[in-house]
Amino acid sequence: MCRLLGISINRPADIRLSFRELVALSQIHSDGFGFAYDEHGVLAVSKDAGSLWKRAGSCKVTAVTSKTFLGHLRLASHGNVSEQNAHPFLKEHFGQQLAFAHNGTVSAVKAWQINQPCIGETDSEHAFQWLLDRLPASDSDEFPLALQSEADKIQKLGRFNVMLTDGKTIWVYADDAIFILKRRGYYRHAQATLRNAGLTVALDNFKSPDECAVLVASEPLSDEQWRKVPKGTVLVLRDGRLVNEFGPGWQAQSNRAAEYSSLKELEQREPRANWKKIAKPRDSEWTIAAIHGGQIERYTERIAAAIAGYDHSLYCFLGLRDESARELHVPSTRFECPELTLLQRMSRYTLSIHGQKDAAAQCIFVGGRNKRVAQRFEKLLMSAGFQVETPPGGLAGEHPRNFVNRTPEHGVQLELSLGLRNAFFDEFGNATELFDRFVGTVRFAMGRLDEVA
Predict the structure, then answer these.
(1) Beta strands 275-280 and 313-319: pairing type?
(2) Which domains does the chain have, with CATH numbers?
(3) What angle do CA 172, 178, 179 make, to 5 degrees?
(4) Which of 59, 106, 281, 331 could form a disulfide with 158 if both were Cys (CB 3.0 to 4.6 A apart)?
(5) Which tens digits make up the pLDDT trace of 330-367?
């Protein structure tokens, strides 16, 4: 079987120590090797069909410093021994490059339909493309749980330990062979013995005192305190930390506030005093919605109500907790509400108002599947003096299951930075001139759409 290694570090560093262990392992796992890493802000992949044991001296990764590394040693079980079949595989997803490596065999997955052809012949690359056809953007909050759900389906076909990275974050899906180790700095007098290389080393010869890292691998690489990750778990690693760990069955095992998977679940489990719904039907082509209002994404319901005025349909969901309101966040792709559905059936377009968390910026991300109308919004908002940014994948609002796209003409999604939302109101909560200018511009953009070229 192949071997996997993922390393997340809090500062750019090399992987000399782990590389020695991989070289030792490659005496058996000799049908190719590869590494993915961040190179000056760009995800790079270097791979070879040969044995790392024979080519260690010329391996490019030995000269790399990065905060993120993903490594793979191949023992071929499906597909010829060739560079195109070596891992990691690199593909584009919602405009973002992702690298993927797999340990195991899931041959039957090659019978599953995929939207883009593979370059190589392996079941691993086919599984990667099948996942990408179904996953949201990697910078979306929904990505790790969606990965868990879809990977669970592939895992039923065989062995499926996988790692993905965008160069900054590493996502890991554990089947039967994923182990994790945390190195927390201060390495003075600390030693580690590499299991396959047979070396005992002083860690402070390889590590800076403030260097923290999380390592995940398909087997423990040293005699340190590695922990086996339970089957069906997804790990999220970034900046030398285990950011999140989602256990089997979509259960978040971390200190991060857990989101509800649906509005129905929230209504069943959350006290009625903690949330509120507002639905106002009107004879209009537009439904204006703020599904993360109240304390979830501050001011979004006030902004939506002002845009709706007395002539457009309005839907708002408000989180009323004083603290931990983020726990009341239901993702846009899983937000199902009968009142909102009724309003959208009466409309042609939906305008969704969301809050982006940057408190320093005053910008607007314009998304949604109706590109024609979204471009009109962008043009008019920029003409009115607002900073409009191209949304990253997680803010693009293009997923077909996103509620904003459920009206016949789909919709437009506006993500407003916290800095901009704060500037809309003075210290007493009164609307500012900037707020009035924004609302007026948006309402004008919503009008006379049949005349838009």
Answers:
(1) antiparallel
(2) 3-252 (3.60.20.10), 263-451 (3.40.630.100)
(3) 110
(4) 106
(5) 889 889 999 999 999 999 999 999 998 888 889 999 99
